[in-house]
Amino acid sequence: PSGPPNNVRGFVLNATSIKVNWTNSSETNGYVIEYTTGGVTRNVLSTSEGEIVLTDLSPMSTYTISVYSYIDLPS
């Protein structure tokens, strides 16, 4: 199985954007990034890179951002 991403960090770029980066785990084919606000999942993204920029966020809102590694995405 793939290991979890390490050292996940977020950096505010402006009022509506944040950059999230992490250290790649071994034996993974990519990452799924999920973010929620107000208990509602707003978006789920996939990348093979070690960072992603989230845009079009609502200013003054609290977001929960989760990063998961995967070997194969479910169909």
TrEMBL record:
Pfam families: fn3. PROSITE patterns: FN3. Gene3D superfamilies: Immunoglobulins (2.60.40.10). InterPro entries: FN3_dom, FN3_sf, Ig-like_fold. Residues 4-75 form the Fibronectin type-III domain. This is Fibronectin type-III domain-containing protein. It comes from Amphimedon queenslandica.
